[in-house]
Amino acid sequence: FYHNWYRPENMAVIVTGDFEDVGVVKEKIIRLFSPLAPAEHVPAPPKFIRPTFPEHAKPRVCCHVDRELSNTVVNATFHVEQKPIATPEDFFKQTVQECYQLCLDNRLYKLMRRPKPNFFSAGIASEHLSRTSALLSVQMTCEASKVKDALESVLTEVSRARLFGFSAQELRIAKLNQIADMEQLYVERDQTYCTDARDELVQHFLRGDMVIGAGLEASLAIACIEKVTLEDVFQYAQEVSVSKSCMIRLQEGRKKTNEDDLREAVNRVAEKERRGEIEENSETFVVPERLMADPQPLKEGESAIASTRTHSISDVTEVVLKNGIKIALKSTNFLDDQVLMRVVARGGLSEVPKEKYKDAIFAGTVARELGVFGYRPEVFSDAMAGKRVDVVPNIGTYKRSIVGETSPDHIDVLLQCTHLIFSNNVENQCNEDDLEVLREIQRELVKNAKRDPMKVFAEIKRALTYGNSYLSEPITLKTLAKMDAEKACRYFNECFVDPSHFTMVLVGAFDIEKILPLLEKYIGSIPRPIDSKEKLSRVTPAPFEFPKKTVSKRVRLKMIENQGVASLTFPVMIENPDAKLKQAAIAKGEDFNGPTLAGSQVIVRSKFLTVISAAIIERRLLARLRFERGEIYSCAANTSFAYQDPNAANGESYRGDIMVVFACDPKSGEKLSKVALEEIEQLISEGPTEEDCQTAKEVELRSIQEHKEENSFWVSYVDAMFTSQLLPVLNGDIDKMYVNTEQIRGDVLETLSPTIIREHLAKTLAVERRVNVVLIPQRPLFLRLIAPNMDDIKGFFEWPETFGEACGKLALLGGVAGAYFAYAKSKENKKD
Question: Given CB 3.0 to 4.6 Å as the disulfide criterion, which of 279, 427, 462, 694 pairs with 489?
Answer without folding.
Answer: 427
